[in-house]
Design brief:
679 residues, alpha/beta, TIM Barrel, Rossmann fold, FAD/NAD(P)-binding domain, five-stranded parallel β-sheet, 18% strand, globular, binds adenosine-5'-diphosphate, binds iron/sulfur cluster
Length: 679
Amino acid sequence: MMDPRYEVLFETVKIGPVTAPNRFVSMPHAIGHSYLMPNGAIGIRETRAEGGWGIVSMQLSEIDPTSDLSGLPYERLWDDGDVRTHAKSNERIHAHGALASIELGHTGIRSRGISNGYPAQGPSVLPTLKPEMPLMARAMTKEDIRRLRENYRAATRRAKQAGYDIVYVYAAHDASILWHFLQPAYNRRTDEYGGSFENRLRLFREVLEETKEEAGNDIAVAVRFAVHEASGPKRITHDGEGRAVIAALADLPDLWDVNISGWSRDSGTSRYDAEAFQEEFVSFVKQVTRKPVLGVGRFTSPDTMVSQIRRGVLDLIGSARASIADPFLPRKLREGRIDDIRECIGCNMCVAAETIGVELRCTQNPTISEEWRRDWHPERVPAAKTREHALIVGSGPAGLEAALVLARAGHHVTVTEAREELGGRVTREARIKGLSAWGRVADYRLYQLRQMANVDLYSGSALDADAIAEVEADHVLLATGATWRRDGAGRSRLTPIDGFEDVAVTPDDILDGIEMRGPVVIYDDDHYYMANALAVDLAAGGLEVQIVTPLPTLAPWMAQTLEQPRMIGELKSYGVRMHPNTTATGWANGALSVMRSDTREELPAIGGATLLSVTVRMPDPSLSEALAARGIAHRVIGDADAPGTIQSVVFSGHRNARELLGQEPAPGHFKRERPTLFY
Ligand code: ADP
Ligand code: SF4
């Protein structure tokens, strides 16, 4: 039964001519499936509708070919040929009682003219945005502006035809032409579309009025607007023109969907932003408009959501990441199953999937993007044909996820863990400053497993091949993890570095509680969070820390998770000295000898009391080899198979369990999206 405290979240909300069945909105966000992969995309959206989200949104959908984000996984509603797919998506959303919305937009100077040969267009001649390309956008003529308005209208008509309940006018982030016209930094026009605030707002207002006209009394019109973007001078801020825009258009849209920009601020990770971090920027909006207000803030706690509603900050709770991590969040809440919610850990692996252009991935939810092509459901696992006994050695994220899938299928599952605490790397890494949310990966799974009568969890129980053989389990899964290399071999250099093996400390030593002496020299040839998170942790503990990396910048993977600039700022604030573009050649007498990575010219050595080597992790194959020698069939999963991110090892645990259950097609033979052949 639902806790009465949360009833307010299930109230209906009137949005112009339509009514949302509750206050939960699965936001427009990239899902890694472009218009080229409609089946997978529909699978994601339908699952959310099934999971109880009152409004399920289509990601950014381009209105015409002058807005072209080719190569990035976005949607299109360019012409009537696109309507059918959208209509099918909406049919599946409506079948579960949810409303469907579409974020219609034109990406302006963010477009990639290189793809179809139409130059990107903007208010003025401007450098195109992201990625850095040697191209400039052209300044739109009055005729272009007229055509843009007409195309917005036409796209709205198509959205209506496709059955959407809410259509967006998109003016947020750096990916909207309306936003580009509004920004004084971008708009250098001298006609009635440039200069004064009213002039810069003109196109936005016109498009909004015309969209309202087209929507009529049938569907609602939402505006998505970033009230704050403080990345440089002459920008929109919540206490300046951000507020003025809301005041000027106050009751024109049926719904205000407000956020902050750029994307790295909008999608802050748990390492840098607390839940509800956007409140300070958007809380004024409800005072300026009478229309409902929707906002985001990596909400995962129902109490925070309730507080936002009760205190008059928001009317609707928007979630991108929470709905990725747990598409059934609203339904679980409604059914009084709050402890079953799989909480987002705020790691932004989902964002990284989009920035590198693959299907949406999630650390907490391995079933995302697999709903259609692999038939994986986030909550249900088909029952196993016969009840068998699975022994899982190792209780890290891979072992726990495999255990959960097998236990849900009805098998008897035994998990053994050598350490006294369960959870493997996530439990250990969660103790590093800034990474406490990582622990949720183990917490969620352990809570579920502890409720199940067919599961035994043993800690302090290291198994060797003899002990495994004695168990006589029907299935054996080795989820024994991996350990950090000590010898300096890493990602950019595959061979050991002189002097490392005997003296270097590794992250495993630190997580085991070794006493660290400063000054510490960290050698980072891993390029993700471990080296910099430990640098901050050690520096916060009072040690002098330097960090050396062979690449031109620190931790480039963190650019994909949108964290890199903030991570570098954090290192600076803790006084950590950084040495990018610096390759280690050896460690001797308390000093790291180094050279420039590009020119290979020798640089002054970097001295320290402790060398911390953070390069790559390696599995230990000996247990698997010993089992093979005895003829004991087994699977090696997670980091023990291919050391990777927490996301990749959770996925490995899930996939291996489904394979074991016989629920998986042959490797690579999941359903594929096939383009139409016209020849
Ligand atoms: P993954 O990320 O693949 O889940 P982790 O490193 O997080 O891997 O977890 C592996 C766990 O397996 C660790 O907690 C480790 O203590 C445990 N482990 C390793 N070898 C054994 C063993 N022989 N018996 C039991 N537990 C083991
Ligand atoms: Fe949350 Fe990480 Fe999943 Fe993204 S990948 S939804 S941030 S847990």
